Amino acid sequence: MTGAPAGTAAAGTAPPGPGPLHGLEVVELASEHAAWAGKLLADLGAEVTLVEPPGGHATRSIGPFVDDEPGLERSLWWWHHHTSKNGVVLDLDTPAAVELLHRLIARCDIVLEGEQPGHLGARGIDRDVIMAASPALIWVSVSPFGQKGPRAKDPATDLTLMAGGGPVWNCGYDDHSLPPVRGLGGQAANLAGVHAAMAALAAVVHRDSSGVGQHIDVNMHAALNVTTELGSYEWLVAQHTVQRQTGRHASVTPTAPTQLQAADGGYVTLGFPPRSARDYQAILDWLEELGLGSAFPDRVLLEMAVERGGVSIVELGDPIVDQIWSAGRAAMAFIAAHVDARACFDGFQKRGIVCGIVNAPEVVIDDPHFVARGFPVSVDHDDLGRTVIYPGAPMVFSRSPWRIKSRAPHVGEHQGEVLDPLESSAQTDEGGAAAGVSPEPAG
Predict the structure, then answer these.
(1) pLDDT in tens, 255-292
(2) What's the CA gap between 406 and 391, in Å, rounded?
(3) Are the CB atoms for 275 and 324 separated by under 8 Å?
(4) Cis-peptide, bond into residue 64, ω within 30° of zero
(5) d(CA 264, CA 345)
(6) What is the dihedral sign for C-alpha 266, 356, 229, 239?
(7) Architecture category of domain 9-230+377-430 in CATH
(8) CATH 3.40.50.10540-classified regions of the chain
(9) Is the pTM of this model over 0.85?
(10) Which one of 33, 105, 118, 206 has the largest count of C-beta atoms within 10 Å of its C-beta?
(11) Which three-class secondary structure string do you get for 377-427?
(12) Cα three-residue angle 394-396-400, rounded to 5 degrees
């Protein structure tokens, strides 16, 4: 991104101008659990001030690191989770810094934190007292088991939360001699962060109409549990246990495979079988184009589907419909076995039939589908003298812009512009200098 101002970013074809959350002020206490929620709000235009302890937050040590060289400003985890934020340092073990934090919070709309229940109160940061003084304030807490209850202070890791919440039980292969699959990348915190961001914005809408803020208590374990779809409901309602399946939803009764190997050795994931007459005709036409029209053994069933106007899920159970349904899936698998994975994906997509392609991690960012959506984003790292490709927006807006405004802040990088006015105010009010603020220079 030649010629861009230091620390700025370009997000594909995102329109210029402030994001949809422009004007929203957020104070985020640096943590592992709430970082993703803060990023979502910041990249959507909110002004997020990230508060770290002296020397930087512990998550700066999470690898991997740029160029495989560990360092305070080189954690890729930190980079990814803290784009578009301002960074300050406060030693919250000192009363003066706590007072300064109170002043910072007093001017914001949302507080976002991921501390263990009771930890902030023990340091003089009493949520109830602060919210009583600022009735419109929205306070979002993200913790493993919520702020109250018998497990509130139980130790937890991403692995134990994923296992206890249910996703691990639901993820894996048809071959149950293989262990369950744990999603990587800190998914417990990421999923909880999505819930935190959504709940915070719902609270903003409520606050704007009522003038009243609220405390939002995000339970990471619960957030994970509600993503298991029928996994939890089957047990709670019918006391049935779902079984892991390769590339598809866990189910009490095994379903037909959907993840198949294409002719080039790559893999595709097929969605629902065709249902409409148009879908079945499209498959018949494609078989003809490939010279496979007479090679598919159940062609007559595809033709029957076209003649009867397609099939519906509610008709399943009828012997003829069941055979047509199976033939539709078999035809998709037949095509996949005779073309490359990319051609299979593009072909089904072009025909309006659900199909996905399974990419290796190292090629995902260059996938033409993602590139066309503007997913790879070039972020200027003035500190490195080069740009770095980041994952882009998790959602695409038709009218309101999303973009990464800047790289993650260095330790104390925005100390002066954010805290100096508050310190001056504190000196005026108290007649003396404020203490407890790290003198570390901006990165």
Answers:
(1) 888 899 999 999 999 988 899 999 999 999 999 999 99
(2) 14
(3) no
(4) yes
(5) 13
(6) negative
(7) 3-Layer(aba) Sandwich (3.40)
(8) 9-230+377-430
(9) yes
(10) 33
(11) EEEEECCCCEEEEEECCCCCCCCCCCCCCCCCCCCCCCHHHHHHHHHHHHH
(12) 120
